[in-house]
Amino acid sequence: MTKYRFHHDPLHRRLLEQAGRMNGPDCHLERLVAADRRLDAFSAMGGGVFYDFSRQRVDESVMDLLFELTEAADVGRQFAAMAAGEKVNVTENRAALHMAARSFSSSPAMVDGRDAKAELQDVLEQIRPFSKAVHQGEITGSTGQAFSHVVVVGIGGSYLGTEFVACALEAFADKNLSLDFLANVDIHNFSSVWSRIVPEKTLWVVISKSYTTVETMANEDLIRRHMQAVGLNPAWHMVTVTSKGSPGDQGTGQELAAFHMFDFIGGRYSVTSAVGGVPLSLYLGYERFERFLKGAEEMDRHALEAPPKDNLPLIAALIGVWNASFLGYPQTAIVPYAFPLRKLAAHIQQLNMESNGKSVDAAGNKLDEPAGTMIFGEPGTNAQHSFFQLAHQGKAFPIDFIGVLNPQTQLDEGRFKGVGHQQELWANLLAQSTALAMGKPSDDPARSFSGNRPSSTIVVEDLEPESVGRLLAFYEAKTIFEAFVWGINPFDQFGVELGKVTAGKLRTEMAARNRDEAHDFSEVDPINRRYLQMLFNGRLD
Length: 541
Ligand SMILES: O=P(O)(O)OC[C@H]1O[C@](O)(CO)[C@@H](O)[C@@H]1O
Known about the structure:
Blueprint: H1 10-22, H2 29-32, H3 38-41, E1 43-46, E2 49-52, H4 60-72, H5 75-83, E3 110-111, E4 114-115, H6 116-135, E5 149-153, H7 160-168, E6 178-182, H8 187-196, E7 202-207, H9 214-229, E8 238-243, E9 257-261, H10 274-284, H11 286-305, H12 312-326, E10 331-337, H13 344-356, E11 374-376, H14 388-393, E12 399-404, H15 421-438, E13 455-460, H16 465-486, H17 497-515, H18 526-537
Parallel strand pairs: 5-6, 5-7, 7-8, 8-9, 10-11, 10-12, 12-13
Antiparallel strand pairs: 1-2, 2-13, 3-4
Helix pairs in contact: 1-4, 4-12, 6-10, 7-10, 7-13, 10-11, 11-16, 12-16, 13-16
The structure holds 6-O-phosphono-beta-D-fructofuranose.
6-O-phosphono-beta-D-fructofuranose is lined by residues 155-158, 208-210, 213, 216, 267-268, 354, 493, 496.
EC number: 5.3.1.9
Keywords: Cytoplasm, Gluconeogenesis, Glycolysis, Isomerase
Catalytic activity: alpha-D-glucose 6-phosphate = beta-D-fructose 6-phosphate
């Protein structure tokens, strides 16, 4: 069997031909959505989610070819192999077992002779009593005061997923405990956090799989300095979440607690491991974190078991590849019509772009064109007042609308113009996806709407912890299915290394100047030399 290569598969040419047809006047979305039973035929329900792709620029011929592509790329087998613990991260010779972190079934997940699931369960059993002891004031800071502030110290996957979930479930949070994020090495991030916390009552959760990420290590060092400066022993205000054997694993032996993460879960897939487990159990209570895990598990089971034509994340992935590689849309926006989901796009940005922003396939063959999609987004209705002008009359881009039927709050919504706030929100969500698809001609070109702008609508019944877990797992599976169709490895991220190495060289020059004022940056290229001079002079001239 010849090795699958996305751009060389016969289906690729046939799909390009379909894209040409789809760009013709007979296939304007206004016509596609008018077809009989359009929504029934172009929607799916599963894993506690409703997925409507009736306003995507596809018809049955396109979908049939995309499902054939699923077979050609052997997507189902690869996804099952990943779930079984095979080393699908071929460039790093690692498994990708983020789903094992929320699997409550008894079946093991063996990796190199170890049961990964048992190791993950052990960490959960460590988190549960720890978070309870902090809530009950049995574990306190070094002055005996209960903790009232938790600060996550981490960057990328070591905080983005947690920030998304914490924001989504803020309504359920323990009001006696605030949660902040110290990710950026920019001193303004630290100063902002430091201004809001009470050091004696603060627990710093240092999260770094490698324990070598400079931003996180610099912040950890700064925390220790400032805690010591106010007479506190930082070790009694710090827990670590890191991989076994990392520089942080030994710890100082004094940390309040040390929790493990593992090399078989990548950072951007780690929010259901201790990376999210420690801060979210402190902020929301362990039981709600577990409910979040159960929602994710429900979508995992759907992604693993549903046949392709009923499989929500697989369908979404096929449409993602169709839009990016055949209809030529380089971006996709994620627009949740739900204020609690306002941090979702930032997490999916890393999840999807760090996974699929690749130019070679898993076998090392250069792709004819890079894989991946640029992700951005803001919640609706806000997005209507920022980038929807371009969405309607500028360069078209697909949108994932996300709707929630029942809000978290029972507050009186009033009846402005005869409707409550949630109804007003939905009127806008449906209006936007409709207007983008249908358009509206006008004799005045400035007031003409071309329409034919694709979108999907993803609906959950509520924003309980389970639903947030479902959405998370939906986007993780979608990302991975997309990668398997493109034939790439979604689990490595070598693209982040060059910047780090280059920063290291400049850091060395700066440190030399800090030691010796006569150091003149003569070894630095002229452009960067000018910037170093501006920085050390504090002046533009
Ligand atoms: O958890 P660590 O090792 O500090 O890495 C932080 C982040 O940096 C990256 O390695 C690169 O962005 C991410 O994959 C990861 O989530």
